């Protein structure tokens, strides 16, 4: 698919000033300025984060109320229930809060709602479970900020709630004992982009400070926090960068959390893990429990200890769930693409809206993402659930999906989400009317540019600038993620050295040069259709830089993103 190249604009005066201070390659200074780093001191904090950089958790609104209520519950020997969502962020949050508090207080348990029988967030079934088992305090993690009616229901049963969430608040804050959410408009916490698990970490950090517990007791869970940050795709800046930095260090050490260590072994990981590895190896396996069966399996693994044989079985079980998930994902995606390919009307649309009663509810969000990648347009995939159609939606850059769905709301039973992703439920008989209205709304609003994927390029670079020293500093900018994406470079006017070739019928093994420079190698996955351009003369190449290890020899190579 053709991409639009967008080269980031940078204040050259700031770049020059920073280069005078740091004495490193100006392109590296450009990357730093793009990330808001303009002075030596800011660069030092960026490249060498410290745990002392973490903010005081009591800066978060209601944190004092939350800790006081937990201490009251412990003093009165009340039963405490740790409640969390069924995805990676929720299950890691449950694991750290439960494991931490369990060490000091035994009268505690955990609960994760079932995706299929309870749905997202706080459920009536979960509150009833708490009531029937005499829990008087629920700590909700990664959910609850809009669960006003559920909190009122719990209050009627004399169950108190502490909400720890990171999603946008509604017009009215739930009537809970404490609502911890930096995105509350009345919360002055300095960093707004924590993950749900990150909020859970701040809770145990505050509990430690209040009760004279060494902070090392909290830091032992930083690898779980790191997994949540990577998997939930939150900003890799500020406090998140510090948490992820030290979390990766823990994850790659002998002291990694037992459950994660087992999962790494079963996934065959034998190298130092990066955030990409967290996102593509660990995250999907943890998520697969909730997608394919029950997320409680994931929590049981994440809270297991070294001598817990059940943890060993849970790791294998999550791996099996993930393999099953991949099969379902692959088969449903192929089926959906076949439906589109056989219908000219669907091909020509500016949206994709498909439904099938047999598609698995646990993977339709992934399938929506796959189809968005293929056709690059707002996409909704639905399946049958409890006699209704339940669906997941994904958008393209710059287009407000939520607003488009909102304007089709008369055909929906319920919906929720944000600009780029959403979920919904509708009656089956409303599918066609909804599909047509969604197509109409999107067609009227989406611009031609928004239907072409954008490749954001950080800077221009010459081949001779790609040295081990340059790459070494570049790697110190990790961990990468939103607000600190792995840089993409462009080199203009390169030519095939004569050795570029198609491999495995769909990829290009690049060998390029510019002027009389030494050849530089790269790989472009799925780019075989661009081979004639590569062979036809000078072209521009967009890429990331990585290491290639072959026969124990390490060399730098391009991970090619596009050519034109």
Strands, count: 19
Q: How would you describe the oligomerization state of the chains in this entry?
A: single chain
CATH topology of the largest domain: inorganic pyrophosphatase (n-terminal core)
Gross morphology is globular
Evaluate the radius of gyration: 25 Å
Low-confidence stretches: none
Distinct helical segment count: 21
The strand line-up of the biggest sheet is 3-2-4-5-6
Q: Averaging pLDDT over every residue, what do you get?
A: 95
| Helix fraction bin | 40-55%
User: What fraction of the residues are assigned to beta strands by DSSP?
Assistant: 15-25%
- Termini separation: 12 Å
Q: Do you know the CATH architecture of the largest domain?
A: Alpha-Beta Complex
Give a quick account of the main beta sheet: strands, pairing sense, barrel closure: 5 strands, parallel
Please report the first level of CATH classification, the CATH class of the largest domain. Answer: Alpha Beta
Q: Provide the number of structural domains.
A: 3
> What structural class do helix, strand and pairing data support?
alpha/beta
């Amino acid at each position: 698919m053709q991409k639009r190249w967008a080269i980031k604009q940078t204040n050259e005066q700031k770049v020059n000033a920073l280069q005078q201070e740091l004495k490193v390659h100006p392109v590296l200074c450009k990357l730093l300025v793009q990330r808001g780093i303009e002075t030596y001191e800011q660069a030092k904090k960026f490249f060498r984060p410290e745990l002392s950089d973490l903010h005081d958790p009591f800066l978060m609104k209601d944190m004092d109320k939350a800790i006081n209520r937990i201490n009251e519950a412990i003093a009165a020997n009340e039963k405490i229930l740790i409640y969390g969502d069924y995805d990676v962020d929720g299950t890691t949050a449950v694991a750290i809060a439960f494991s931490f508090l369990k060490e000091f207080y035994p009268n505690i348990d955990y609960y994760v709602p079932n995706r299929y029988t309870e749905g997202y967030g706080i459920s009536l079934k979960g509150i009833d479970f708490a009531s029937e088992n005499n829990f008087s305090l629920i700590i909700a993690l990664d959910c609850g900020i809009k669960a006003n009616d559920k909190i009122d229901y719990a209050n009627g049963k004399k169950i108190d709630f502490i909400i720890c969430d990171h999603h946008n608040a509604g017009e009215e804050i739930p009537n809970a004992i404490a609502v911890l959410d930096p995105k509350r408009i009345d919360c002055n916490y300095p960093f707004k982009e924590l993950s749900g698990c990150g909020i859970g970490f701040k809770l145990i950090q505050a509990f430690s400070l209040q009760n004279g517990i060494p902070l090392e007791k909290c830091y032992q869970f930083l690898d779980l926090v790191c997994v949540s940050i990577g998997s939930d795709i939150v900003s890799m800046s500020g406090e998140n960068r510090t948490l992820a930095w030290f979390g990766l260090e823990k994850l790659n050490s002998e002291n990694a959390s037992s459950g994660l260590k087992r999962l790494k072994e079963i996934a065959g990981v034998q190298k130092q893990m990066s955030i990409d590895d967290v996102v593509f190896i660990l995250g999907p396996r943890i998520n697969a429990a909730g997608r394919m069966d029950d997320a409680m399996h994931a929590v049981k693994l994440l809270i297991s200890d070294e001598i817990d044989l059940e943890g060993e079985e849970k790791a294998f079980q999550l791996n099996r769930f993930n393999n099953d998930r991949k099969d379902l994902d692959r088969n449903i995606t192929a089926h959906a693409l076949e439906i589109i390919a056989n219908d000219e009307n669907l091909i020509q649309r500016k949206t994709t809206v498909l439904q099938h009663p047999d598609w698995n509810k646990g993977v339709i969000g992934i399938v929506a993402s796959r189809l968005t990648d293929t056709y690059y347009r707002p996409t909704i995939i639905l399946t049958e659930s409890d006699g209704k159609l339940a669906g997941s939606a994904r958008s393209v850059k710059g287009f407000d999906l939520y607003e488009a769905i909102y304007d089709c709301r008369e055909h929906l039973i319920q919906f929720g989400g944000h600009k780029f992703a959403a979920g919904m439920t509708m009656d089956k008989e409303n599918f066609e009317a909804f599909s047509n209205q969604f197509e109409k709304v999107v067609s009227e609003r989406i611009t031609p540019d928004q239907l072409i994927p954008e490749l954001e390029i950080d800077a221009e670079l010459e081949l001779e600038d790609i040295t081990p020293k340059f790459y070494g500093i570049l790697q110190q900018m990790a961990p990468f993620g939103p607000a600190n994406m792995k840089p993409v470079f462009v080199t203009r006017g390169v030519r095939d050295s004569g050795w570029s070739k198609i491999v495995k019928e769909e990829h290009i093994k690049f060998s390029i040069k510019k002027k009389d420079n030494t050849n530089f190698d790269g790989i472009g996955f799925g780019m075989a259709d661009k081979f004639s351009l590569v062979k036809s003369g000078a072209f521009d190449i967009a890429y990331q830089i990585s290491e290639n290890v072959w026969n124990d020899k390490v060399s730098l190579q391009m991970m090619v993103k596009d050519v034109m």
